[in-house]
Design goal:
With 330 residues, the protein is an all-alpha fold. It is built from 14 helices and 2 strands; from the N terminus they run αββααααααααααααα. A hairpin with a 2-residue loop joins strand 1 and strand 2. The longest helix is centred in the last third of the chain and has 18 residues.
Length: 330
């Protein structure tokens, strides 16, 4: 009887596994998983399908690896993209952050896990991650997470159980799952609730400067909560108040409400968003230079250009608030 090739390889190379058409050492595969789960999932998704909140804001969207056959994207192309980034997209280069062996490990992991095996990778909602009894506790919200029921379905069309499920989604799921599926996407630049509303706030309430929102137990326990608090500054001028509103609605998502960049999202970005309270950096920052950065963005970072979104007067209002709230500017 002829021994199957896959079995023979498994016997000869016990430290490796074969799935699809790729042979990868187990240790390297798990190294790639760790790197992916720390640096890549936020845009590309835990299972490589790019179904993330971040992807809804990016154009072009991150690649869906589960819809990309290996023959369509070579390993060499992936290595280059990871190392050097892809111009015209949100994919930045990691050559200065990851070692060559780490770049190879994460590329091979993506090819094997998502493009060949179509595996689900790491489950986030596990007991080890603090999600005890997740399926039982949050089952009512699942239809809104998966898009089975659009989030903006009129209340009159929802059953009592669905209304309770939507309330649960809005209080516990929306910060990562965004709006899931909706009937009306709204205007392109209309603000969406991200980490808010919570604790009974209605869909669309949003999070405005000065809001006194009582956060839920999970968020309140987060070490990032401190940086999501808006500085209470008495005597803001009308211009500074306009700048506060613009900053908290547009900039705080990455730079944190307190300007430190130490909020949850900021901690995942490489390089980290600039700490606007850092005297060592801000002492060399001028109003003119900051206006240029806001208008044009910063290549090689997650700082986009805002010139198509904010008018010149808006940018000056922002700068006035930054100079008042975080660090004086010349």
């Amino acid at each position: 009887m002829r021994t199957p090739v896959a079995l023979l390889l498994a016997l000869l190379l016990p430290g490796c596994f074969n799935s699809g058409s790729t042979l990868i050492p187990q240790g390297e595969h798990e190294l790639g998983r760790k790197i992916y789960n720390f640096r890549c999932y936020y845009c590309h998704g835990y299972s490589g399908d790019a179904r993330t909140l971040a992807s809804t804001y990016l154009a072009p969207p991150p690649r869906d690896f589960t819809a990309t056959p290996p023959r369509q994207l070579s390993r060499e192309q992936m290595l280059q993209a990871i190392a050097d980034g892809r111009p015209g997209t949100a994919m930045k280069g990691f050559a200065g952050i990851l070692l060559p062996a780490e770049i190879a490990a994460v590329a091979d992991f993506v090819r094997q896990e998502f493009m060949i095996d179509r595996a689900v990778n790491t489950r986030y909602h596990t007991r080890a991650n603090g999600w005890a009894d997740h399926e039982e506790r949050y089952a009512a919200a699942f239809p809104f997470v998966t898009g089975e029921v659009p989030l903006d379905t009129p209340g009159a069309q929802l059953s009592p159980a669905q209304k309770a499920g939507r309330q649960l989604f809005m209080s516990a799921c929306i910060s990562c799952h965004d709006r899931a599926k909706v009937i009306d996407e709204g205007a392109p630049w209309e603000l969406r609730p991200l980490s808010y509303p919570r604790n009974g706030h209605k869909p669309g309430d949003g999070y405005a400067p000065g809001s006194e929102l009582k956060l839920d137990g999970i968020t309140s326990a987060s070490p990032y909560l401190l940086h999501d608090r808006i500085p209470q500054i008495p005597g803001l001028t009308p211009q500074e108040k306009r700048g506060e509103s613009l900053y908290q609605l547009n900039c705080a998502f990455c730079h944190a409400a307190d300007g430190t960049g130490r909020n949850w999202i900021g901690s995942f970005l490489e390089p980290h968003p600039r700490d606007l309270t850092d005297a060592a950096f801000m002492s060399g920052m001028t109003r003119q230079r900051l206006a240029g950065v806001i208008r044009e963005g910063l290549p090689g970072t997650s700082m986009p250009a805002w010139k198509s979104v904010l008018a010149g007067e808006d940018i000056q209002d922002l700068i006035a608030y930054v100079a008042r709230a975080f660090h004086p500017l010349d």
